[in-house]
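FORM 7B: Structural annotation worksheet

SECTION A. Query
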Amino acid sequence: MTGGDPTGEPDVGLDTGLDDEACAPAHPLELALRYGMRFSGLREVALDTRLLLYLPLEICERETVLPLSINEELLHVASASPDPDLETVHERFPELKIELVFAPVERIGALCDELKAAL
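SECTION B. Predicted structure
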């Protein structure tokens, strides 16, 4: 049947209107805008191995995150995703708030490698 008949079966075929770019992962800047978070290219980051006391390297590598800085109550963490699993940090430091900053996954990985080499 044609013409908006509600009893007709829906078309479940593949959507051929999508191109490869539509399936590509979003750029971190786009994700930051989408989730209302800050973005950083991590170009001038001063790595501090002491921050690994708050966010261990194993978690950094598993969740693709990187601790950037800390003040009395706030840990700034670069992340490649909007919801990394940082429950361990919350359990160890319940009063510490975490602020995520979107960053490119490749740059986070390279800086994690630098931290690992510095240990």
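SECTION C. Observations
The chain is about 35% helix and 15% strand. The chain has one domain: 26-118.

SECTION D. Sign-off
Analyst initials: ____
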